[in-house]
């Protein structure tokens, strides 16, 4: 991905269910780009971004480092053509180059089409978990 892709990536991010502006994507991409433990791949058709995949390496105390697909979307109308698979292959190659032997992905329970895609691509379900979120503010004492 290049910073100039931000507007189109924002449109695709909306298709994923997370509306964003090009400015927001550009700011977020600025935090990612240049870090050796994260990368965003894009697929283009005629110079237009039609898909993106964000992957990162996680190091935890309780396990060896692994790669995780943090987001993947292919534009409606381009799905089912192998674009997502090609992006996953690129992510796997990048993960191997980072020393990872495992790649993971989390997918919302309701995204049954995505689950089928990942299972066709060789992923297997390994656990179910809950995700908790808490809004914090800068003025909040610890």
Characterization of this structure:
By secondary structure, the chain is of the alpha+beta class. The protein has one domain (3-120): Aminopeptidase. Helices cover 32% and strands 25% of the residues. The protein contains 4 helices and 4 strands. The chain has a 4-stranded mixed β-sheet with strand order 1-2-3-4. Strand 3 (63-74), helix 3 (83-97) and strand 4 form a beta-alpha-beta unit. Helix 1 packs across helix 2. It is globular. The N and C termini lie far apart (37 Å). The mean pLDDT is 94.
Number of domains: 1
Secondary structural class? alpha+beta
Report helical residue fraction: 25-40%
**What is the strand content?**
25-35%
**Over all CA atoms, what is the radius of gyration?**
16 Å
> What is the level 1 CATH name?
Alpha Beta
**Count of β-strands:** 4
* Multimeric organization: single chain
Topology readout:
Blueprint: H1 6-15, H2 22-32, E1 38-45, E2 48-60, E3 63-74, H3 83-97, E4 103-105, H4 112-120
Offer a few descriptive terms.
about 140 residues; alpha+beta; Aminopeptidase; 4-stranded mixed β-sheet; 4 strands; about 25% strand
């Amino acid at each position: 991905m290049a910073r100039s892709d931000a507007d189109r990536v924002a449109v695709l991010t909306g298709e994923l269910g997370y509306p964003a502006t090009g400015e927001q994507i550009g700011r977020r991409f600025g935090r990612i780009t240049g870090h050796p433990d994260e990368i965003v791949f894009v697929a283009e058709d005629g110079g237009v971004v039609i898909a993106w995949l964000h992957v990162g390496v996680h190091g935890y105390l309780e396990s060896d480092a692994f790669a995780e697909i943090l987001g993947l979307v292919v534009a409606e109308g381009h799905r089912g053509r192998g674009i997502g698979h090609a992006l996953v292959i690129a992510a796997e190659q990048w993960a191997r180059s980072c020393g990872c032997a495992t790649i993971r992905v989390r997918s919302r329970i309701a995204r049954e089409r995505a689950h089928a895609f990942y299972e066709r691509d060789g992923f297997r379900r390994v656990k179910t978990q809950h995700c908790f979120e808490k809004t914090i503010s800068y003025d909040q004492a610890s």
